[in-house]
Structure formats: C-alpha cells, structure tokens
Design brief:
This protein is 36% helix and 28% strand. The protein is an alpha+beta fold. The protein has two domains: 2-132 and 291-311, Aminopeptidase; 138-265, Aminopeptidase. Strands 1-2-3-4-5-6-13-7-12-11-10-9-8 form a 13-stranded mixed β-sheet, with helices on both faces. The radius of gyration is 20 Å and the shape is globular. The protein starts with a strand and ends with a helix.
C-alpha cells in the first residue's frame, strides 16, 4: 500500500492507497460528493479502528474502503463491524488486481454494475448475491396505506399497550439484540463495547437513532438501532424478546423508525436478512428487493473450508 501524505492533493491512478491522513481522505470524499455514512473516515475509525482500514482508488477517483486485518494468519479485507455494505464510487479492472494481494476478501456491494463481474470471474473469485429491502420515503402517508392490513393491526395494538424510549439505555438494546441472535444460533455482530464506540461516533455526527419498546411493567420488548445519512437510513441492529414476539413491538418500532427516517433521508433500508420469516416480515411494509453483490476470495480450498466452518 502507498502512504498518502497529508500535503499531497492528487491521487495516483490504478493504485490502492492506505491513507494515514484523514484530512486528505475526507477531502477526496467531499470532492466526489460521497456522503454515504459507511464511507466516512469517522465511521471507519469507529467500526474498524483508526489504523485498520484501507481506501482504494481507481482512475484517480475514490472507489471504496474496507477493514484490513489478519484472520487465520492471513491478510484479509473484510466489512467492518455493523457495516452492511461498502459503497463503491468508481471501478476499473486494476482494482481487482489490487484486491488479489489479499489472501481472504469478503465484500458486500449494493451499488454495482453487472459488467464488473467479468473481472472477478477471470480471477476465480466466488460471486453470489443476496438482497435487502428498501422503502422510498417520498410519500409517508401513501407508504402507510400500502402496509399489509395485518401489519397495521399489530402497530395499532402496540401503540395502545407499549411505550417507546428514544436514545436511552444502549445496554438494554444490546441485550435484547443479543437474545435474538442467540435464539437464531448466531453470534451478535458486535460486542457492547463496539456498539458503544459506534454510538459515540454517530452521536457526535448526528447520524444515529435507537428505539426500545417497553410493556406496562417496564420490561423491554424489542429494540432497533438506526444510522443514517442524507440519502438513506439503515436498520443495522435490533431484536425482540421471545416473550413479546406477538406484542406488535417490532412493528411499532419499525413504523416509528420509518417516520423518523423521513425527516432525515430519502430511503429506508432494512439491511436484509437470510432468514425467510424475517424477510417476509419486512415485505409486509411494502419494501422492494434490492440486490447485493457478495464477493469472496480465498487463497486456496483449505482456507475456504476453514473460513466457512468458522463462520457457522
């Protein structure tokens, strides 16, 4: 990687750059009007660590940034914690050559072009797809009218029975979320300390909101955590207590989250789910499918087997 000096103001083409000057990096984002929260230097500092992320450039333009670390004794390029996508601004074939220097790569690109795939296929990358669901927020009343009747009933039921707190008790939010992931036999994507670090950064940059629903006995029923920029509000973490699965709590929180998102962003992204029942639930809001490109590179078949086994 090339160190990008603070005083330099032009970008070498066809090279990836490790930026140790946050001012220079942020300037490059501003120059190319890149406002996506997941590309911001402060977000990468909070989710990957100040010295653990790398920015790539293609044809003199910022391409994308990701978390660089050692995994299973190999140099890896991965999504940072609580980061569902790596926004891509620019792409060319030389970028794939740079990525090939990593032993293991896992990337999730939501904004991509199908013509890019050929370059990855030529280099024996594993290419697959998943999807997220997204709402357009231009007409909130019309959006609500398009909700499934069953969803509306759940929202109304919860409004009469539950209270919602906003930006209070991050630890409870993490605990409720952790309970949900445990029930799904998955590991929660962040520790409480990691969530706290992200929350502090987002609070400083006015880029987060979280909601917790409580019953009349003050028991937490469900919780969701949002981050946002001018274009999109992302639901990146949340869960519901099994005891209150039928309370309508999650329906109510997501409806409140969507109404809030309307005040800050143009879209609301549910950030997808590989669990069929959850994806079906998201669809009741009228959210449309958005394809996400999943890119994986492995050093060899043994490494692929080991990483797949580790991720289970």
């Amino acid at each position: 990687m090339i160190v990008f000096p603070h005083h330099q103001n032009s970008y070498p083409s066809k090279l990836s750059i490790r930026l140790n000057s946050k001012t220079a990096y942020q300037h490059s984002l501003n120059s190319f009007e890149q406002e996506n929260i997941f590309a911001q230097s402060w977000w990468l500092d909070a989710t990957a660590g100040e010295k653990n992320w790398t920015a790539f450039f293609a044809e003199n333009k910022f391409s994308f940034a990701a978390h660089q670390k050692n995994k299973l004794l190999q140099k890896a390029l991965l999504p940072s914690v609580l980061t569902p996508y790596q926004p891509v601004v620019k792409f060319d074939a030389t970028l794939v050559n740079e990525l090939n220097h990593f032993s293991f790569v896992e990337l999730f690109w939501r904004n991509f072009e199908k013509k890019w795939l050929m370059e990855f296929e030529k280099n024996d990358w594993k290419i697959s797809f998943k999807h997220t669901r997204q709402l357009e927020l231009d007409d909130i009343e019309k959006l609500y009218n398009n909700f499934k009747p069953s969803l509306k009933r759940q929202i109304q039921k919860a409004e009469n029975a539950l209270k919602v707190s906003v930006n209070e008790d991050l630890q409870t939010l993490h605990a409720v979320s952790s309970e949900t992931f445990t029930r799904q036999k998955k590991q929660i994507p962040c520790t409480f300390e990691q969530l706290k670090t992200v929350d502090e950064a987002c609070k400083k940059h006015h880029a987060r909101k979280y909601f917790i629903a409580y019953n009349t006995d003050a028991k937490p029923c469900a919780a969701i955590y949002l981050v946002y920029d001018k274009n999109c509000c992302y639901y990146i973490l949340g869960g519901i207590s099994i005891e209150f699965k039928n309370s309508g709590a999650m329906c109510l929180l997501l409806w409140q989250a969507i109404q809030f998102a309307k005040t800050e962003s143009k879209h609301f992204d549910f950030c997808g789910s590989t669990i069929t029942s959850i994806d079906k639930f998201f669809s009741t809001f009228g959210a449309q499918k958005i394809e996400v490109l999943v890119l994986n590179k492995y050093a060899n078949s043994l490494q692929e087997w080991a990483i797949r086994k580790w991720k289970k």
